[in-house]
């Protein structure tokens, strides 16, 4: 499988089956991480983690505290695409990591990034 990243009018394909998307919440300044799998059905959210809680940062009902992170397994159907829009209110963009390394996305206010399974 491959992940397609549409950013700045350009599409980049990365061969991978799993990735982690992380960012810092604009108000709480707390890190949030999600682990995604690329499947024939689309992008599947496998796990979410948040380092703390607060406004808009509530852990899932089945969350457990592990090494300072609230960890849970959200129930969400496979997504055709995941759209990220940079508000400019966060200290950084999103960090997408996989076995081959990491890349920063949406670092400038107004940046729009779309993640999807490559056809």
Folded structure, characterized:
By secondary structure, the protein is mainly β. 0% of the residues lie in helices and 55% in strands. It has strands at 2-7, 10-15, 18-24, 31-39, 42-50, 64-66, 69-72, 81-85, 94-98, 101-105, 112-117. Strands 6-7-5-4-3-9-10 form a 7-stranded antiparallel sheet, with no helix packed on it. The protein has a 4-stranded antiparallel sheet with strand order 2-1-11-8, with no helix packed on it. Strand 1 (2-7) and strand 2 form a beta hairpin. It is globular. The relative contact order is 0.27. The model has no long low-confidence stretch (mean pLDDT 88).
Cα shape: globular
SSE topology string:
EEEEEEEEEEE
Low-confidence residue ranges: none
Strand order of the largest sheet: 6-7-5-4-3-9-10
Largest sheet: 7 strands, antiparallel
| Share in helix | under 10%
Quantity of strands, as a count: 11
SSE inventory with pairings:
Elements: E1 2-7, E2 10-15, E3 18-24, E4 31-39, E5 42-50, E6 64-66, E7 69-72, E8 81-85, E9 94-98, E10 101-105, E11 112-117
Antiparallel strand pairs: 1-2, 1-11, 3-4, 3-9, 4-5, 5-7, 6-7, 8-11, 9-10
Tags for this model:
119 residues, mainly beta, seven-stranded antiparallel beta sheet, four-stranded antiparallel beta sheet, 0% helix
Provide a brief overview of the structure:
With 119 residues, this protein is mainly beta. Helix content is 0%, strand content 55%.
């Amino acid at each position: 499988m491959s992940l397609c990243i549409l950013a700045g009018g350009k599409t980049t394909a990365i061969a991978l089956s799993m990735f982690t998307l992380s960012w810092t919440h604009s108000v709480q300044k707390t890190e949030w991480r999600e682990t995604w799998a690329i499947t024939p059905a689309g992008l599947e959210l496998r796990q979410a983690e948040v380092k703390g809680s607060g406004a808009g940062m509530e852990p899932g009902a089945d969350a457990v505290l592990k090494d300072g992170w609230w960890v849970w397994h959200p129930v969400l159907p496979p997504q055709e695409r995941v759209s990220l829009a940079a508000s400019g209110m966060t200290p950084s963009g999103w960090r997408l990591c996989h076995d081959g390394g990491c890349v920063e996305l949406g670092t400038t206010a107004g940046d729009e990034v779309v993640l999807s399974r490559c056809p």
